[in-house]
């Protein structure tokens, strides 16, 4: 570090976690932010885009968050990380030095080995919607986790007149929710016309009897850059971190969000971990210990179209309790939670000092 008081901080990735970290750090230390995309996409709403919500409604220009700050944003992709030299190279050729690196490259859908043009993912939601306009037909969602369930429900609700929707999952539906919660998921999907097949493992999307296949089977962390640079990865292929979310092999690198740790990949963890790594970097610069509090999960929230949902109460380790909220009240709660993510980032932009007082973000 050049001085203990003003570490040059480089943030790669401007998703929920990286943007939150950058905004919280900006009043205190010089911050450079790197992301190839000039906007924040509300990734947690991509299933809504697939079903027909205009993409413009879930995309927010980064300048909206950055204009009140002194953050330098490079619209570029990080292509190389050299921890020995403490530099990151961009696809523009620029080499950026850092004292502290926030590695926030998140995750994407893990694609199967073979994929054809009838295969779509959350990342290709706008193209999927365009394809759905060319219905009628048969659509299969592969993956019985929360993202697959939300996708099947949303498409069935909005496009169910033209599209027969199936959901195929290798195990059981939503293994992380309670029996009561799962019963509600089954009942609501059935009412929306979604045919669920459990115990159906799909390795090759071409083997699925459908006109459109939406792949939601699992996520892959954005750790290729880290692996090439020699950062230690854990058994999940994510960056191995300590309680303060510092890389165990390279403690000058902090890893909020999906790219590191073992917690459920979620926006619910991305925002607090983004905020916490900022606190830790600032604490360290003041000669104090970094923030080692674990992120406590409170809820799992699933939208089931626009008029139904499941809010599942969980213990701090993310295991389900029996307490659930369903139906319209659950849909309302889920919508408020989705809105609160962009609101939290807007607050971090305008009044970063207020964040430590916000439950879950402090
Ligand atoms: C359809 C869907 C619904 C979801 N619903 C929920 C939900 O209801 N609740 C919940 O908690 N979670 C939900 N999630 C999960 C949630 O979206 C992710 O866990 C969250 O986005 C992770 O945030 P992140 O900041 O770690 O990374 P990301 O959001 O993945 O952001 C990563 C950023 O890194 C940038 N980037 C990538 N590569 C590079 C590079 N080489 N150089 C520079 N920048 C790069 C990307 O452009 C992106 O901006 C959902 C996900 C999907 C797909």
Pattern of helices and strands: EHEEHEHEEEEEEEHEHEHEEEHEHEEEH
Question: What strand order characterises the main sheet?
Answer: 5-2-1-9-17
The main β sheet shows up as: 5 strands, parallel
Count of individual domains: 2
- In DSSP terms (H or I, runs of 4 or more residues), the helix count works out at 9
E-strand count: 20
- Classified in CATH, the superfamily of the largest domain is FAD/NAD(P)-binding domain
Overview of the molecule:
This protein is α/β, with parallel strands linked by helices and 362 residues long. It has 2 domains: 9-109 and 219-292, FAD/NAD(P)-binding domain, CATH 3.50.50; 119-215, FAD/NAD(P)-binding domain (3-Layer(bba) Sandwich). Helix content is 29%, strand content 23%. The chain has 9 helices and 20 strands. Helix 1 (16-25) runs parallel beside helix 9 (327-350). The protein is globular and about 60 Å long. The mean pLDDT is 94. The structure holds flavin-adenine dinucleotide (FAD). One of its GO terms (molecular function) is oxidoreductase activity. InterPro entries: FAD/NAD-bd_sf, FAD/NAD-binding_dom, NADH-Q_oxidoreductase.
Note the topology.
Blueprint: E1 9-12, H1 16-25, E2 31-34, E3 39-41, H2 46-51, E4 59-61, H3 62-66, E5 72-74, E6 78-82, E7 87-90, E8 95-97, E9 100-103, E10 107-109, E11 119-120, H4 125-132, E12 137-142, H5 146-159, E13 163-169, H6 179-191, E14 195-198, E15 212-215, E16 219-221, H7 224-229, E17 253-254, H8 267-285, E18 299-303, E19 309-314, E20 320-326, H9 327-350
Parallel strand pairs: 1-2, 1-9, 2-5, 9-17, 11-15, 12-13, 12-15, 13-14
Antiparallel strand pairs: 3-4, 6-7, 7-8, 10-16, 18-19, 19-20
């Amino acid at each position: 570090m050049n001085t203990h008081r003003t570490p040059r901080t480089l943030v790669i990735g401007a998703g929920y976690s990286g943007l939150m970290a950058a905004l919280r750090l900006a009043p205190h230390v010089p911050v450079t932010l790197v992301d190839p995309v000039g906007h924040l996409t509300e990734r947690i709403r991509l299933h809504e885009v697939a079903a027909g919500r205009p993409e413009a409604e879930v995309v927010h220009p980064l300048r909206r968050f950055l204009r009140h700050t002194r953050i330098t944003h490079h619209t570029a992709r990080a292509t190389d990380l050299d921890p020995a030299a403490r530099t990151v190279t961009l696809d523009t050729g620029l080499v950026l030095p850092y004292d502290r690196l926030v590695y926030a490259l998140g995750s994407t859908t893990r694609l199967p080995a073979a994929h054809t043009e009838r295969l779509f993912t959350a990342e290709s939601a706008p193209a999927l919607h365009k394809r759905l306009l060319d219905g009628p037909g048969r659509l299969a969602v592969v993956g019985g986790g929360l993202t697959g369930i939300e996708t099947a429900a949303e498409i069935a609700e909005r496009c169910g007149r033209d599209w027969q929707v199936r959901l195929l999952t290798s195990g059981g539906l939503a293994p992380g929710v309670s029996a009561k919660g799962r019963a509600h998921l089954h009942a609501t999907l059935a009412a929306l016309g979604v045919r669920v097949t459990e115990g159906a493992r799909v390795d090759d999307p071409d083997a699925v009897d459908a006109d459109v296949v939406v792949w939601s089977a699992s996520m892959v962390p954005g750790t290729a850059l880290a692996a090439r640079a020699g950062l230690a990865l854990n058994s999940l292929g994510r960056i191995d971190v300590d309680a303060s979310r510092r890389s165990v092999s390279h403690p000058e690198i902090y890893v909020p969000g999906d790219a590191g740790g073992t917690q459920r990949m979620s926006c619910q963890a991305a925002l607090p971990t983004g905020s916490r790594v900022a606190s830790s970097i600032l604490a360290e610069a003041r000669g104090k210990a970094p923030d080692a509090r674990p992120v406590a999960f409170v809820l799992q929230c699933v939208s089931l179209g626009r008029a139904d949902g499941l809010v599942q109460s969980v213990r701090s380790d993310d295991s389900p309790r029996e307490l659930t909220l369903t139906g319209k009240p659950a849909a309302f709660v889920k919508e408020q939670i989705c809105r609160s993510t962009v609101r939290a980032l807007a607050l971090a932009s305008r009044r970063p000092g207020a964040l430590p007082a916000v439950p879950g973000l402090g």
